[in-house]
Amino acid sequence: MDIILTESQIRKILTEEYSEKVVEQLVSKFKQQEPDEDESVIRAFIKRFDRVKSDSGIQEKDIFKYSFNQLRLTLMNYFGESKPKSYKGDTDMDVVYNNDNMIIYRADNRSKCIKYGEGYSFCISSYTDTASYGRHIIKEKGTPYFIFNRNFSNKRTSNDKPMLLLLNKLFESPEHLLVIIVHDASERPLDGKDAINFLTFEDGGRINTDEKYRSVKKFYSVADANNLGEKYYVYFDNIVKKYPFLRGLENIFRVEKLDEKDVKYYQLNDLGKKELKKINEKYALPQNIIGAAPEYYDSCDDYLPVFFELDDITSRPVRDPFIKGEYYKYMLIYRSEGESNTVISRHFGRVGYDKCVEDLKEYIEKNRKEYNTFKNSPASDENSEVKNNMLKRWDKYMDPENYRIKRCDWPEEYVDYLKDIYSMGSKFLYQKWLVSNS
Fold this sequence. Notes:
14% strand
């Protein structure tokens, strides 16, 4: 029996066959450039480029014009960490206690922490703060429990102004929600030899000297809805003294097995941080931003950014010009006789010059408007000498001859530093993307 194919089926077969031939050509090309790279990884990058090439962030749409390293760097933002999602599964499965007054959920992965902590400021419930979840849950082997008490109000305070540094108003009854994290101490005894022992515990005594802590197998951190800082406890009875409604529920709060996907992701993150540290050590750079002096300057003696966190790799402005081989930036500088130079703006790469030109036009126009406003203001006539001096100063700001656009080149060692940073970073971002999308 003959099989008759429709025109659309024939077109689909021909397209798929052509696509595979193209992919094979690209794989062969990229394999010659990166012989140690796994073919499945190369194919993943090719497939990802094909899906995102229409995005405005990708200027060159022809994949054949890329080296594999350029392709890897170009796709860094598209292989970046996927935004974590709030849990969409059956929440009844997470209920470990429920009565008319209170319901307790066990959140044994990050998406559940986001789900049960939505609307609050808990760091483990944040969409963006990945480091805190890794520290409190993965590193400290914690199992979070969200305790909603229906006997207390969940209304915010009536105060019109939130407390300083807080984005939200406080709650009238912060105990309406408690987050208790139960931490496993069985493999890290409270003997003063671990960083956890520098925490202040509410049970009294010094962790590194008091013998009563030696046999402890777990400890607790507790935060209420206001989240003004968690309190640490070794003994559950001391938590009950502050929150009597938890009496008799100690056995509910157990350490559970960590989510394998979360563990893999944060192990990979820690490995990436170690690799970043090695690169900074190679170039004799400081290991954190606290107290760190700038280590690299361009030909204009202007600071160039270095990297202390993996997240910096996709956010620094030097990445795109680095990919294009444009190892410089442009600065718009105001200079006038008798005055010190002032940098108005900085822009990296070839497009930086045109951006500085636009900045100059906007800056002069801004000063022209301010000049006219001040000149026509009746209040400015009260002291004619001051007014004339101010107008003369504005005359300088409105004169294009008092500005220059200067090109500032990067030192060769900084380019080498970026090569190492982005080579390492692009690989880890891809691996993290695979885990977060698995």
